[in-house]
What does this fold into?
Amino acid sequence: MNSNSSDLQDFNTGYDDEISIGELIQKLWRKRGLIVILPLVLAGLTVTGLLMGKATSSEKLSYYIELTGLKDSAYPNGTAFSPQDLLSPQVVTQLVADFGITDPQLLGKSIAIEFGTPLSMGLLVEYRAALDANSKASAEDLALINQRYETRLNDAMRRGLRIAVDYTELGLEKSRGVELAYALPQVWNSVFSAKFRIFVDSGIAGVPMISEGVDLTTSLGALEAELQLESIQTGVSLLADDGRFRALEIDGVSPADLQKVIKDFRRIYFEPIYANSFREEVGLATVYRRDLELALKELEAVLAELNDRIFAITELQKTSSREGPDSSGYARNSSQLQIEGDALGQLVNLSRTASLSEYLQQSFDKRSEIANEISTIKTRLQKMDANGTKGLSSAFVDMASDRYAAITLKYTQLLKAAKVTAQRETPSLYAVMTQVEGEKLLERRDFLFIALALALGGMLAVIGALLWPADKDERA
It folds into this structure.
């Protein structure tokens, strides 16, 4: 009997030492306020800290543009493209003037431009997910994953640009920051299209305008008119040969019509006036004639040197052709070396022959250019040596001046119209993909911090509730 009572007492004592789940739940329930409030307090403090950090930092605007006018990261004329082209000195200068920014260097520091598109951001997330899903894969499998996504990511990213503007650092309001963000690619497109001629065109943009007021009665005026007529003929030929400008008309005069007018003017009016202006060997006529003769002698000397060079190259090619593959000069000690030596000699000869042929073609092109210049100078000297008619009537000279003024006017008008047409037909280098947006108050990573704060607050609240000393009512 005594033994059974002792065993029952020991069992009750051991049962009292065990943890009661029900008591723990009751204790946590009694401290439910602490368990709810503490995580919310920590989460609130985390949100407050994140917002205060964003409030004290700079505010940025960003958006994406698609590069529609580029191919393989290059401009239409083949020049390589870089995102920093949007911050070239010419672009920055115009933006500084348009938006009243005092420090041009600040503009470059406050704008970030990098390759990227919304599609590339999605591919990057997919790529990271693929790496996480295959974290235990072999090195070969990971290499295949990298190879599969590398090309897709590069292609997607280089299709567009991400433009970010820190408008607070520039001292601008948000509305002006949005205007600046949109204006940046517009200015880049305008500057590179007009000033750098990145589009392959007919060369109209490089044709100079012609000054007016040339006096055909003097030697200086006749010389100036001669040079201007050459420029006019070049420009009109470009207009007439380009399908975009061939149909242009100014008062019923097209480029083809103007070509005929210039030809008639030269033959009927200008040639007599030009010859007559250099009839007397005095003043400018003497100086100009001497310069032409010196230039002619220099060009003839260059032409003679080119002829000697071409003759030497052709003779060398003939010699190499007669010598054949054994001209490599390599020693041959066996049949195998004989074969290898012959093959190597052939390669050396082929390489040398190709280099000489290319150099010979360059020499021929240079000789043709020099010959044309010599022909032009000789023609001018012949015109100056022609017997000018003494006492050209003033009516003839006045009529010639009027005709020349009409030619320069029509040419200038046609050239301006052609440049306006070319500028209007210039394609755009980019297209807007997304609207300008500011940074979000809370980014995705910020919600991770908030979740961690909630979890930490919950753990601390549970630990605190369990360790909280019981009051008298609870012990009773």
